[in-house]
Amino acid sequence: MESLVNAKPRIPLHMLLGTYSSTEALKDGTVRSEIVELDFAEVQRPNNAFRRVVRDLEFDVAELAIITFLMAKARGKPLVLLPAVMIGRFQHPYIVYNAERGLLSPHDLKGKRIGMRSYSVTTATWVRGILQNDFGLDLASVKWTTFEEPHVAEFVDPPNVQRAPDDKELLKMLLDGQIDAAIIGDGAKNDPRIKTLFPDPAAEAKAWHERNHAIQINHMIVAKQSLMDTHPEAACEVFRLLEESRRVAAEKGSKTEPAFGLEANRHNIEVAIDYCVDQKLIDRRLTVDELFDDTTRVLGA
């Protein structure tokens, strides 16, 4: 009875987190906490709520795309990074074209029309960086077509970006020849006309990795500054829970995402920052250390 009386109430946290093999044990209650009580947002896909993360600061802790976070942080949004990578993948398979309209290669994109969900989303930023750095594409020479506004409200799309009419759909525009290529997050569709721009995306990804010695991060975890000010132990506990959930998944034979920890991801984040600066998504080169605070910087060390 005494232990129940003296027990501290758990800290309630509203959290945005996708359901993956690495998070399943946390979300289904297999991994539990005596420190925090997690209230998971009911969203089908986390990226559908990223705007709410950076504009409304709705979540205490959230999964967030790395490029969106960097853009938000550069504009003073009170968010702190945790060194937990939820999704990391090479982006080479995610730019596609309609082969029925003729062959298209990464060297043929000057003056072409390329569609994507939003200009500043992470997959599109990685793909543009690949085309710019590795194939010499002048990004200003492309006509970019988007369907959504940026997650970060203060960002203004470049002048060579136009919004598609409301009645248009990305894949249909590609098939109809209204755009020449598309950056689609789930890659090539089952339509035989759709081919990847890179004939061998896996080989291109391997070569990119050998040149850059990095992975292309998609999503990490962030916490509101107000939470770090009042309950830094809550962020530490979330990190522990995510690590434990990954361990459970690994024991079941599931492949886990890239390593946790700041030093394990320092160079990966540096490359993401470079791509943001090169594409003028942020106006200064953030340092990796300023993305964290004294609490989150040492997590996983």
From TrEMBL:
Gene3D superfamilies: Periplasmic binding protein-like II (3.40.190.10). Residues 60-143 form the SsuA/THI5-like domain. This is SsuA/THI5-like domain-containing protein. It comes from Paraburkholderia aspalathi.
